[in-house]
Each structure stands twice: as structure tokens, then as C-alpha cells.
Amino acid sequence: MKHDWLTEELAAQWSLLPTEREFLGNKTGATRLGFAVLLKFFQAGGRFPRHAQEVPERAVEYVARQVGVLAAEWLQYEWQGRSIEYHRAQIRSLLGFREASVEDGEALAAWLSEHVLNQDRQMDRLKATLMERCRSLHIEPPTQDRIDRLVRSAIHQHEERFCEALLTRLPVGTQARLDALLLPSEHFSYEKGQEPGRSLLQELRADPGRASLETVLAEIAKLEQVRALLLPLDLFAALSPTVLKSYRQRDVRGRTIRAATAPSCITGYTAGCLLSFARPRNYRQPCRLADRHRAPHWRQGGGTHRTRTDRGSQARGRQEQSLISVSGSHSGASRRHCARSRLSRGR
């Protein structure tokens, strides 16, 4: 909850209504103020405060004036014992809320898994969404630790269901080709200094490096390898770009991509599909990297000056980009021939 409140906001969110004042009864001192603050905090935030310092000071002062108690009494309110438990029960009854049960937790995790996780994976936003869901169902949110466990449980449930569904859509031949991605690579040997025994999967994940004829041909070879998997084009249509990116960024080294029904193996197939599915969209990367390594530009006297070498580099960059675009419409041998001939003419 925010700590800076305007006077108008305090009046709208922290004013006690006549029906709410009736619940103050014969409470006095810190008990009277504590009950009123808990009530208004719950109405504003959908939960009870975890400690006294979580409540904005201006809000405490505003409520204290309404109940006729000094604001300093707030620090004397007891956060353990029968009184606060009774106050919380009274407030839940007044507002029509109930405590979260074990069944509620399972239902909340299932709801997140089914309705939210295809679109978002950011933990803080998932927790906030879960809190809002509790509020809409008139359920007092669980403790922070339990919310963390529920969110992680929902993510696990979603991944299990998603990976199982993905596996059922992969033809047997595609599964075999995904298995082959873990075999040692002999075809992809363009990078200097690479460690021996790297798998095809690691080669596909490797950064292309600075743009050159060799790296362009290497990326073309990777593209052919990916296309040979014959992945369905709508394999990840249900996932938002943000979630798809979060999956792709995971480190899949050491994951097993073998035909089996164990969750780890299913996740391995998913990892291979995600990486392979993304690669055709990134085959222009060598030319983007080439632009980054062009002859340097510098500023003098507030202006940008380019040398003849700069203009020549830009021209070669355009040629490299054109040869990459050609690779998308030719067969493997034809693409490599076009790449070599065009780059040679550019030089």
C-alpha cells in the first residue's frame, strides 16, 4: 500500500461510515483505534496489515481523529492474542469475507494455471492477480509465504499440462529428430575454439558472432536443421510473446530430450521445440551484429562524421542483408551458393 495520501484520498478511503462506527462499541484507547485502522486498511487493500509500520502514518492520524484517540496509541495495539483475532473475525463478518481454506488455495492455483499463466509469468504480477482474485471472491488472502507457494504450484501445474499437451502434438518423426539434437555435432563447426562434443542443441543456441561469410553459412545450416524438425506452426499459439520469451531464455543445457513420459523428459521436448521454433525468426541476427561492428562513428563539434570506409561498410552490410533474405526462398545448396556469390561480388 502506498504511504503518500492526499486529503481527498483519505476522505474517500479512510472515513468511517455510521454503520462502521457501531462496531466500535465500548472499545477504548489502542483497542478502539486498532480496530478502526484494521477495518479501513482491509477495505482499501483487500487484506489486513502485517505490522504496524505498514499502515500510512497520515491514515492513522486521520482515523485517530475520527475515533477520538491519540494517534500514538496505534503503536500500543497488540498484534498477538485474542483481541486482534476477535477484531479480524468481526471485520470479516462485517465485510462478508471468510478465511482461505486448503480447498480455496487449490482452486486459486488452478485458476491461475488455467486463465493467467498463458499470458504472464512475472511473479509480482501473478501475486497481485491472486490477491485481486481473493478480493473478488470475498476471501481473506493467505499469508505471503502461502501465496508464494500457491503461485509456484500454479506455474508447475501449468507447465506440466502444457508440456503434456505439446508432446501429444509432436509426430513420432519429430520426436526422433528432437532426440537427435543431443548427439555430438559434426556438421556445425564454424566457431573457432568451440569445445569438443558439443551437441546440435548447443550449436543451435550458440551466438553467431561477428557477421562474415562463415557465420552466415552457419546460420543458414542451423535454419535448415530447424526446418527439418517439421514443427507445427501453431505449436505455441496459446502463449503470449512475453511467456514464450521467458521459456526461451531458460538454460536448457543438460536437459534430457528422450522419448519418455516423465515430466523432465516432456519438459526437454518443450525446451527443444521452443529453441527450434524461435531460431527461424532470428536468422537475420548476423547482419544485425554486422551493423554493430561497422567502422566506428565519432562526434566532433556536435556533428557525426562518416568516412569513405564507413560508407563502404554500410554498402557491404546491405549486401549481406540481401543475401540473408535470399536464403529464406531457396533450397539449402542454392542458399549457400547465393551467399558465397553475393558476398564475393560485394568484396
In helices, the fraction of residues equals 55-70%
- Helix and strand string, N-terminal first? HHHHHEHHEHHHHHHHEEHH
Nearest-integer average pLDDT: 75
Give start-end ranges of low-pLDDT stretches: 187-193, 251-266, 279-310, 315-332
* Percent strand: under 5%
Structural class: mainly alpha
Total domain units: 3
Count of DSSP H/I helices: 16
Rg from Cα: 31 Å
Number of strands: 4
Major pleated sheet: 2 strands, parallel
Please provide a brief summary of the model:
With 347 residues, the protein is an all-alpha fold. The protein has 3 domains: 7-96, no CATH class; 99-169, no CATH class; 172-296, no CATH class.
Structure description:
There is one protein chain. The model is unreliable at 187-193, 251-266, 279-310 and 315-332 (pLDDT under 50). It is elongated, with a radius of gyration of 31 Å. The protein is mainly α. It starts with 6 loop residues before the first helix and ends with a helix. A hairpin with a 2-residue loop joins strand 3 and strand 4 (303-305). It folds into 3 domains: 7-96, no CATH class; 99-169, no CATH class; 172-296, no CATH class. The protein is built from 16 helices and 4 strands. The strands form 2 sheets. The chain has a two-stranded parallel sheet with strand order 1-2. It has a two-stranded antiparallel ribbon with strand order 3-4.
Features:
about 350 residues, mainly alpha, 3 domains, two-stranded parallel sheet, two-stranded antiparallel ribbon, about 60% helix
Helix and strand topology:
Blueprint: H1 7-13, H2 18-21, H3 29-45, H4 57-67, H5 82-95, E1 98-99, H6 102-115, H7 123-136, E2 139-140, H8 144-169, H9 172-180, H10 200-205, H11 213-227, H12 241-248, H13 263-278, H14 285-292, E3 298-300, E4 303-305, H15 308-327, H16 332-346
Parallel strand pairs: 1-2
Antiparallel strand pairs: 3-4
